[in-house]
Predict the structure.
Amino acid sequence: MVKVYTIASGKGGTGKTTVTANLGPMLARYGKKTCILDADVGMANLGLILGLEDLPVTLHEVLAGKARIRDAIYEGPYGVKVVPCGLSLQGFQQSKPERLKDVMADLVSGFDVLILDAPAGISRDGVIPLTIADGVILVVTPEISSIVDSLKTKILTETVGGHVEGAIINRVAGNGDEFNRAQMERLLGVRVLGIIPEDANVRRASAGRSPIVVKYPDSEASRALKRISADVAGIEYTDESVPAKREGFIDRLARALFRAKA
Ligand SMILES: Nc1ncnc2c1ncn2[C@@H]1O[C@H](COP(=O)(O)OP(=O)(O)O)[C@@H](O)[C@H]1O
Ligand SMILES: [Mg+2]
């Protein structure tokens, strides 16, 4: 059975497109037939950061009733399929977001996972991706405005009969160790699926038209994104690039004590 996720937030610029552009390829790599769609039809940039520009057919044409969805599917990293939007204002004006539901219905038979990169805010059109998902994933930055706006999106999702799967906390300073996951879960009332640190490689990867998990797989943000992807895929995370944890003083002492007791 296909699973549809919508990557949403209240506030703009929290990292929805970044999460979509990395979660999609990783799920494909983990063996899930995955398609990512740019449902942010007004501020489309999923295609842009994946190097898919100047395309003849995009979701805009499909939502305008001028093309079929199968002609708007392109190949992305690790074999993920990508349905980008065009960049023109005219394309946006002609597209009818209410057609999205039919578009999704056409895709369900070919994929295990569909991921929608949703627009920010709580506009009328922005509600559609929240209603057609099996699970909404909120991308939140650790700022009060982002948390409050995400709470509104959560309430809106539940009001329209949708379900919030969890939240990803993005752009966390440092290594995230001091970050209080439990407090965030209490505030948002949903499970925290993962914490992504602030990492300059995210921007560098976008500038190079590639997801960070492909371009800088060993970076801190990539490790977090891979861990989240494994969680969503329902598999255990093992990162071959992570060196085995070095034994600390306490571990050594405990081992010595155990040996002495035995
Ligand atoms: N973990 C991160 N570390 C550093 N920069 C990030 C991180 N996540 C996102 N960004 C940057 O923040 C900006 C907004 O991200 P984007 O994914 O486009 O947000 P949204 O789709 O929610 O508007 C982009 O310039 C992106 O490169
Ligand atoms: Mg975006």
Remarks:
- Residues 3-261 form a domain with the Rossmann fold fold (CATH 3.40.50.300).
